[in-house]
């Protein structure tokens, strides 16, 4: 599932091709995504120019004079910039065709992604307004996370994956950040000291920054805006390594299920 590094990689990859470019047509082959694509989307976007592309959590926001196109990649979605004469294949649901000769193609085998429109401030949109701070922003700091944790008895892994607390820390990155910080994923959030939260925040920043630099993580579906996989999968230290030797202590890595997600940890290095 594309998480913050994959979505940021997509944004950075497509922006040079379409910021400043004007849309001449929109082809919608399938409206039935997580939510129905608006029937009037083609009319809204035709002849509109993309002024800016930003990201909030896992949502990409395309600014035009009329409003904002909001795209979420869901579990298996991708956006690619290609020449407008490239034939479409199965699961290529939407093409945004630009006057420049390029098109932006939305591909989503599982159809859990979404393509929406708003003429209001997107930060007030019902899907975005409740979200926590960005993990690479100044708002995500030790005092904030420690204060939020005091009345939370859920596991620390579930805590940092809660989008109302902080956005974009998916399962892979939660596993990696907890390993780097030496924190056991089973610990309750309200039992962790401020000092350890400071270390965890630094670990989250390190992991996410490295993942963005490497173009995200590809385990199955993800490709970036140029159709290339992410290479952070080569950097994974704990995720999906159950039964293998810990890189630090050589003991066997364990795996449990938390909230229907696989959790990998070393019970010697992570306490």
In words, what does this structure look like?
The protein is elongated, with a radius of gyration of 20 Å. It has six helices and ten strands; from the N terminus they run αβαβββββββααααββ. The strands form three sheets. Strands 1-6-7-5 form a four-stranded antiparallel β-sheet. The protein starts with a helix and ends in a 6-residue tail after the last strand. Helix 1 packs across helix 6 and helix 5 crosses helix 6. About 3% of the residues have low confidence. It has two domains: 121 residues, N-terminal domain of MutM-like DNA repair proteins; 124 residues, Orthogonal Bundle (Helicase, Ruva Protein, domain 3), CATH 1.10.8. Helix content is 24%, strand content 20%. It has 271 residues and is of the alpha+beta class.
Give a quick rundown of the structure:
With 271 residues, the chain is an alpha+beta fold. It has helices at residues 4-18, 41-45, 142-149, 156-160, 171-181, 194-213; strands spanning 23-28, 52-56, 59-63, 68-72, 78-83, 92-98, 102-107, 114-118, 254-258, 261-265.
């Amino acid at each position: 599932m594309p998480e913050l590094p994959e979505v940021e990689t997509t944004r950075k990859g497509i922006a040079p091709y379409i910021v400043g470019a004007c849309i001449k047509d929109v082809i919608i082959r399938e409206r039935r995504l997580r939510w129905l694509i608006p029937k009037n989307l083609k009319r809204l976007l035709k002849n509109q120019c993309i002024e800016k592309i930003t990201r909030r959590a896992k949502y990409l926001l395309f600014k035009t004079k009329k409003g904002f196109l909001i795209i979420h990649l869901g579990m298996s979605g991708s956006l690619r910039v290609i020449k407008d004469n490239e034939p479409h294949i199965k699961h290529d649901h939407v093409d945004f065709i630009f006057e420049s000769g390029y098109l932006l193609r939305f591909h989503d085998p599982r159809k859990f992604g979404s393509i929406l429109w708003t003429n209001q401030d997107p930060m007030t949109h019902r899907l975005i307004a409740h979200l926590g701070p960005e993990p690479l922003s100044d708002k995500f700091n030790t005092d904030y996370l420690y204060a939020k944790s005091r009345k939370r008895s859920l596991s620390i892994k579930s805590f940092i994956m809660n989008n109302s607390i902080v956005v974009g820390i998916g399962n892979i990155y939660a596993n990696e950040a907890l390993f780097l910080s030496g924190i056991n994923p089973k610990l309750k959030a309200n039992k962790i000291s401020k000092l350890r939260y400071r270390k965890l925040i630094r670990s989250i920043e390190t992991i996410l920054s490295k993942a963005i630099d490497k173009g995200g993580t590809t385990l199955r579906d993800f490709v970036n805006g140029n159709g290339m996989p992410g290479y952070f999968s080569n950097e994974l230290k704990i995720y999906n390594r159950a039964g293998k030797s810990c890189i630090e202590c050589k003991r066997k890595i364990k795996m449990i299920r938390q909230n229907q997600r696989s959790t990998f940890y070393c019970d010697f290095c992570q306490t």
